[in-house]
Write a structure and sequence with these properties.
Length: 299
C-alpha cells in the first residue's frame, strides 16, 4: 500500500502523485455505498501494480474542503476579479470571501484587465481593494495586469502551499496562470459581449506543480450563491465585524437594529466600507428567504 495526493480527476479516474511518480487510479468499489467521493487535493492510501492501473483504498483526514469547486486540503485561494468585461463586482467578491472565511485559508484577490479601464475607474476600484487589504486580505491590483514584478510576487506565495485559483468566468484565471508558467498553455476564450460574461475554458480540476507548491485552475462562474453559511453564522464571516463587534453592547449583536452597536458606529464614521455592510444586509435577506427542502420518505 502507498500514500499520495490526488492531483487530477477526470471521467471517474484519479491521478495520484506519490513521490516523483503519478499513478492512474479508480476509487474502490465500496466508496459509493459509503457515500465517499474522492476530491482533488485528497491525501489517500492506494495500491497499484502498474502506474496505469490502481485503486484508492482510503481517504485520509481532510484539513478543509471546498464545495465549489470541489477540492480539498487548500492553504490559499486566489480570487480572480476582472476590472471590466465582465464588470467588477464587490457583491460577487464578498460572496467569495465569506465562503473562504469558513475554510481557514489565506484569501487573495487578483484584479485583471486593469489596462482596459480609465484611470478614474481604476482609482475607484483601488480604493475599495485597499480597504480589503486593511482587513487582512492579500491584494494584487497592478495598473498593468500582468507585470513581471507582480507575477513574481504572486508566484512567491505558492511555495509549500496548495493554492486554488477561482473567480468570475472570463476574468482571466487561465491567462494569469499562462503568464506565471507559459509551458502550461492553458486554453482561454473571449467573453460574450451580449451576456457580459466569459466562456468556460477550464473543464476539470487539476493541481499543477509551480514554484515548490501545487496550483489549481478551476472552472469559473458568473454568479455565486451563498455557500456553507447560515443567517446565524454570516456575521462571523466578516473579519472586521468580528473585531469591531467586540465593542457592541450585546454579545450576540447582529449589527442591524440593536442599540449601541459598535459596527454601525464604525460604519457611520467611515471605518467600514459601505458596500460591505450593504452586502451583509442583502445576504441576510437572501438567507432568510431560503427554505429547507424535505425529501419524501421511500418507505
Amino acid at each position: 500500500m502507498q500514500t499520495g495526493q490526488i492531483i487530477k480527476a477526470l471521467s471517474g479516474f484519479y491521478e495520484v502523485q506519490s513521490g516523483q511518480q503519478i499513478y492512474r487510479t479508480r476509487a474502490r468499489g465500496n466508496f459509493r455505498k459509503r457515500k465517499i467521493t474522492p476530491l482533488v487535493g485528497d491525501f489517500v492510501e492506494f495500491e497499484s501494480k502498474e502506474q496505469s492501473e490502481g485503486y484508492i483504498l482510503e481517504i485520509l483526514e481532510r484539513q478543509n474542503e471546498m464545495i465549489r469547486p470541489p477540492i480539498a486540503n487548500i492553504n490559499q485561494v486566489v480570487v480572480i476579479m476582472s476590472a471590466v468585461e465582465p464588470a467588477f463586482s464587490l457583491n460577487l467578491l464578498d460572496r467569495f470571501l465569506i465562503y473562504l472565511e469558513s475554510l481557514n485559508v489565506q484569501g487573495t484577490v487578483y484584479l485583471t484587465k486593469t489596462d482596459l479601464i480609465s484611470d478614474e475607474l481604476y482609482a475607484q476600484i483601488k480604493v475599495s481593494l485597499d480597504y480589503y487589504a486593511s482587513i487582512g486580505y492579500r491584494i494584487f491590483a497592478p495598473r498593468t495586469a500582468f507585470t513581471a514584478e507582480t507575477i513574481a510576487a504572486i508566484e512567491a506565495t505558492f511555495a509549500n502551499q496548495t493554492t486554488v485559483f477561482t473567480g468570475q468566468t472570463g476574468a482571466g484565471k487561465s491567462t494569469l496562470l499562462n503568464h506565471i508558467e507559459p509551458k502550461l498553455n492553458l486554453a482561454t476564450a473571449e467573453i460574450s459581449k451580449s451576456l457580459n460574461r466569459g466562456k468556460h475554458t477550464t473543464r476539470h480540476i487539476e493541481l499543477i506543480p509551480i514554484n515548490g507548491g501545487l496550483v489549481g485552475d478551476t472552472p469559473g462562474f458568473s454568479s455565486l450563491g451563498l455557500l456553507d453559511v447560515t443567517s446565524e453564522t454570516l456575521v462571523d464571516r466578516f473579519p472586521e465585524f468580528r473585531e469591531i463587534g467586540q465593542g457592541c453592547k450585546f454579545r450576540t449583536c447582529q449589527h442591524v437594529m440593536e442599540p449601541k452597536c459598535a459596527v454601525k458606529e464604525a460604519l457611520e464614521a467611515g471605518q467600514i466600507l459601505r458596500s460591505r455592510y450593504d452586502n451583509y444586509l442583502q445576504f441576510r435577506a437572501e438567507l432568510k428567504d431560503l427554505r429547507p427542502v424535505y425529501k419524501k420518505s421511500k418507505s
